[in-house]
């Protein structure tokens, strides 16, 4: 790749930074997903991939068996990966990242399409949307919500269900040795949504 510079270090792994993304137009210049290194979603210290904080790029998320689960792009890869981890804890074990110095949506969409070729991603909304607490309500929580006599009662029921789901997510993250600070947006809980602050 003539317009790429090799050697930016991520621990022992390497990643490529594209200096002039506007030149990345032909399919032969698109970085092959197979050429990028697998990086652990959570490092040995329980931290997330902080080297991608504030970095624009495209990333592919893999499960424990290194099966592709999702491909996305972001203006801050670190924040997006953290959000995906919370939304899909059991599917975020490995990641491949292509950092781009100057963002270009067309290029990112072209790379995403190439990486996804021949792969069907099921339920993309679970990766990109806040967690809908109603989908995870117990029968008792659902009954309390439905029997609430006013909006205040429904909000209280949603917040209680959101706290329980949040607790379950935090337990899963702790089991994965995540030491990074994870904080949910408290205002969204009233709407029955869980998303990071």
Written account of the structure:
By secondary structure, this protein is of the alpha+beta class. The protein has two domains: 4-121, no CATH class; 131-194, no CATH class. Helices cover 33% and strands 20% of the residues. The strands form two sheets. Strands 1, 2, 3, 4, 5 and 6 form a six-stranded mixed sheet that branches. Helix 4 runs antiparallel to helix 5 (151-175). It is elongated and about 60 Å long. The two termini are 38 Å apart.
What keyword list fits this structure?
6 helices; 197 residues; two-stranded antiparallel sheet; elongated
Secondary-structure map:
Elements lengths: L3 E7 L2 E6 L20 E2 L16 E6 L5 E7 L2 H11 L6 E7 L4 H12 L8 H4 L2 E2 L6 H9 L3 H25 L10 H4 L3 E2 L3
Parallel strand pairs: 2-6
Antiparallel strand pairs: 1-2, 3-6, 4-5, 4-6, 7-8
Helix pairs in contact: 4-5
Short description:
It is built from 6 helices and 8 strands; from the N terminus they run βββββαβααβαααβ. Helix 4 packs antiparallel against helix 5.
* Beta-strand percent range: 15-25%
Radius of gyration: 19 Å
Shape: elongated
Largest sheet: 6 strands, mixed
Q: What is the domain tally?
A: 2
- Helical percentage: 25-40%
What string, H for helix and E for strand, traces the elements in order?
Answer: EEEEEHEHHEHHHE
Query: Span from first to last CA?
Result: 38 Å
Q: Could you tell me the number of beta strands?
A: 8
Mean pLDDT: 85
Report the uncertain regions.
1-28
Number of helices: 6
Tell me the structural class: alpha+beta
């Amino acid at each position: 790749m003539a317009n790429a510079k090799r050697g930016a270090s991520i621990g022992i792994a390497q990643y490529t930074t594209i200096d002039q993304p506007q030149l990345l137009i032909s399919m032969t210049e698109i970085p092959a997903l197979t050429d990028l290194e697998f990086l652990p979603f959570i490092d040995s210290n329980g931290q997330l991939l902080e080297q991608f904080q504030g970095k624009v790029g495209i990333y592919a998320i893999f499960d424990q068996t290194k099966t592709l689960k999702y491909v996305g792009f972001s203006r801050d890869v670190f924040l997006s990966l953290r959000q995906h981890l919370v939304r899909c804890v059991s599917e975020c074990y490995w990641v491949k990242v292509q950092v781009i110095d100057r963002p270009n949506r067309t290029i990112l969409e072209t790379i995403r399409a190439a990486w996804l070729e021949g792969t069907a991603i099921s339920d993309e909304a679970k990766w990109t949307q806040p967690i809908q607490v109603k989908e995870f309500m117990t029968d008792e929580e659902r009954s309390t919500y439905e029997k609430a006599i006013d909006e205040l009662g429904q909000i209280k029921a949603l917040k209680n269900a959101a706290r329980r789901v949040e607790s379950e997510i935090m337990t899963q993250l702790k089991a994965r040795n995540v030491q990074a600070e994870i904080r949910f947006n408290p205002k969204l809980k009233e709407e029955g949504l869980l998303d990071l602050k």
